[in-house]
What we know:
The protein is of the alpha/beta class and 168 residues long. The protein is built from six helices and seven strands.
Amino acid sequence: MERNEKNILILCADYPFKRDAGFGFHVAKVLEKMQLPENVEFIEVGESASEFPHEIEGKDKLIVVDVFQTNGEPGTIVRLKPEEVPIIVNGITDVPKLHLLDTLAQISISGKCPETIFIGVVPKDIKTTSSQLTPEVENKIPEVIDLILKEVSQGLVAKDRKDSLSKE
């Protein structure tokens, strides 16, 4: 019998020593204690998400967990498509995100780029040297985990739904 599960990669990006920039690291610590379905892998990659094209290519779905400086209040949970990811923040290019988006664009040339979604929060403080998240961001970890699990559960449906899911 053919399995209808999507091959999913959760990629937790972070910089764990700049306060809220470590959000992906803290989410990864929760995920590693969970029993994820067999079709789901996750890796914590620091700021080097673009250096893992071999892990990304050929997956059915990629979930990137990070902080995103949108116009939302600190702690606002965001779910973004690749074209919605803010690259220029306060006049400065977010180089790790730019490199990841470039990597995804290169993978798409081969036709093996997964459906990609970015999930995370708006940070409050990414400048202070600390491994602790601000309360506004830390309190959102359970909700973000729930959102990730919802994305994963959508990956347990037949692959022919992939087209309809990516058009939402």
